[in-house]
Amino acid sequence: MTILGHLRLLFGVTIALLAIAAGYISYLVVEREEGLREAARYNAAWATSQALAEFISFEQRVAAHGLPGSGVDTDHVQLRLDILFNRATILRGGDVAMMIASEPEQAATLQAFEALLAEIEPLVAELDRPGVAVDLLQRLAPMENRLKYLAASANQFGGAQVADDQRTLLELHWVFSALAGGLVLCGLMLIGLLLAQNRAIGRAHDRLRLMTDDLRVAKESAEFASEAKSRFLANMSHELRTPLNAIVGFSDMIAQEALGPVGEPRYKEYARDIFHSGTHMTELINDILTMAKLEAGHFEIEAWPFDLYEHVEATVSMFRGTEMARGSDLAIETTGPWPHIRADERAVRQMVLNLLSNAVKFSPPGMPIRIASRRLESGELSLTVADHGVGMTAEQAELAVKPFRQVDDRLARRYEGTGLGLSIVKGLIERHGGRLVIVSEPGAGSRISLVFPRDAVLPLSVVRVA
User: Fold this and answer.
1) Among 149, 271, 277, 404, which residue's beta carbon has the most beta carbons within 10 A?
2) CB-facing half-sphere around the CA of 407: CA atoms within 13 A
3) 3-state secondary structure of 244
4) 337-374, pLDDT tens digit by residue?
């Protein structure tokens, strides 16, 4: 990963962490606000002051009970007592519970208040009985001061709580502000990174454009050189073949003593050597010219229908007449019908001759070499030359179809040739829209197949027997 990639990853992780932290702080603020809103309903100062006010109101109702013209009866007093029970229940929740948990003395006050209410409840029901009101007031008197102290403590606790909440919210505010600032800073840094990366991309684009221009110039130069090479090979091949044809022709006449005896027997052998060397050189020049045309895309295919069996048989007969084929066991398998195909007869003959030459060259004398034809499931036609020669590995087979290459230097020294045979075959079959398939194993021989496309195969001809 590049430095820019690491920086992008770092910024991405940092922004994600800051966003998570900001979300968490926001959650804490909302939760705290909710707590404050909930506690505001029954906060300590309010609850205790309400309890104290109701307690004093209850004392006043008890004191006014029975006085002429007061209008306070037992039901009024019972109502105020019920309100006191409600206030005692409220004191058990909200912030009062937090205060009582931190101040055991106030917990005792609350317990005493609840016990007092339970104690005076029966007396309220007997308030009309003489002396009950006085007894009730005497019981209530000590609790009033304790409730006042509870209210004062609750007010102090509430103030401290508000201050603490304000301090906490302020801290959360500053933390949130820092996170927001961090997010802004990361955003600015990310923008700077993107700008830097954009400039880097621009520079890379400029370099790529310059490289493209260089490659275009190099391509044009290569195409010009290839065209010049093709023209050179075509001209040189023509210039070389003209004298070579004369050399081959006159040497053959001398070797055959067409115009009479040559006298010295050695001259006849020399003429035969000249003939073979000239013939071999002509074949090399033809191979080089064919390869040059294939590489330049100038090899024209003239496809016409013809009987594949008759064409292969004539090619094999031609090959049997060469010195290379002497002593070779060549045969055409006719276990099935051979079809007509639409192809270039000259190119097919050259491919078959090259495959036969390759098979004979790399097979021991007398080993069988077979030519067979079969239809594939895909509808394609496979024309195979099989031998039992030295064979080759998959890597060597891949190397063998490259121009001017043989499978290794030892074979190049042992077997003469330019290494163009299979390269030419591959080029010619591909010009027909087909493919070359090599199945080989070291020491077990090779099966090299010309696979013609389905549309090149015509209806089957009459079955022929060799």
Assistant:
1) 271
2) 18
3) helix
4) 788 999 999 999 999 998 998 888 888 888 899 999 99
